[in-house]
User: Which sequence fits this backbone?
């Protein structure tokens, strides 16, 4: 009986390899050929859609730069060296992040990176906490150019054992930050995190008047209700789908478009899907 089961298993495994070999019968000559062969494998039920997405992301990661996935300064949660220690600790607790760039009087002057876990010993300190207690626990910051390829950055994260990099523009000014999670999301897709505010709140008010952060997954119904707009729900369910339709493709970070009386600016996109959008209301006057 066991031999029968073993024989059946071998036949199934052989069939799987034969089907895979058939799908790759024609030798691929480019990355596009590989993707097309993988799409054929998905249609033939040789691999599932999730596996295809991961392989496709791994193939594309060497073509994506840090500027394409970085978090812009407006979304960075930073600790200021002149802040009261209690204010800094409260910011750490409320944000639920694990790492924080620490800046001096000039926002482009990064003093280091603070790990939330390094603050724990201070909570048991009998004396009053002073800012030097926090600054003495800073880790060195890692700086990278906007043009750094994600495959190289991921290798740096792995080999040099750091999880956050400060992204600098050509003038040496801070243009954002990138984390190991941002790079991994480019390969495996969105990694849901209980600390991601937009997961539970699709529309957020910012510090700027009339400017909002909107998740690309926000339903058109919710978007229309919030912004008093009348976007059609017939073809798409989410605002991200509407945006792709307006561009005629998946827009990249910092690309903007205006329609329906609103101004849309892509804040986060990995080239395959839009993630976060900045929406301005009303549309800024550009006639001057």
Assistant:
């Amino acid at each position: 009986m066991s031999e029968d089961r073993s024989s059946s298993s071998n036949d199934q495994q052989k069939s799987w390899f034969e089907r895979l070999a058939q799908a790759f019968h024609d030798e691929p000559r480019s990355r596009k050929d590989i993707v097309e062969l993988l799409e054929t494998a998905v249609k033939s039920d040789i691999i599932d859609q999730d596996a295809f997405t991961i392989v496709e992301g791994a193939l594309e990661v060497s073509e994506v730069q840090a500027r394409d996935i970085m978090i812009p300064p407006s979304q960075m949660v930073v600790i200021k060296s002149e802040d009261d220690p209690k204010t800094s600790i409260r910011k750490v607790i409320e944000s639920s992040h694990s790492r924080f760039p620490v800046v001096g009087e000039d926002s482009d002057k990064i003093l280091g990176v603070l790990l939330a876990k390094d603050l724990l010993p201070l909570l048991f300190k009998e004396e009053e906490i002073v800012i030097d207690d926090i600054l003495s626990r800073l880790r060195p910051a890692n700086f990278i150019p906007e043009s750094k390829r994600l495959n190289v950055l991921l290798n740096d994260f792995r080999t040099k054992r750091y999880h956050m990099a400060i992204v600098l523009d050509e003038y040496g000014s801070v243009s954002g930050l990138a984390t190991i999670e941002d790079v991994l999301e480019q390969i495996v897709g969105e990694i849901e995190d209980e600390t991601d505010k937009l997961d539970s709140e699709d529309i957020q008010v910012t510090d700027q008047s009339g400017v909002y952060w909107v998740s690309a997954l926000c339903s058109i119904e919710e978007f229309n209700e919030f912004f008093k707009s009348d976007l059609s729900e017939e073809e798409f369910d989410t605002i991200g789908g509407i945006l792709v339709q307006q561009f005629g493709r998946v827009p990249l970070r910092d690309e903007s478009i205006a329609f329906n009386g609103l101004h849309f600016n892509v804040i986060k996109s990995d080239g395959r899907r839009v993630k976060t959008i900045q929406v301005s209301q009303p549309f800024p006057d550009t006639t001057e």
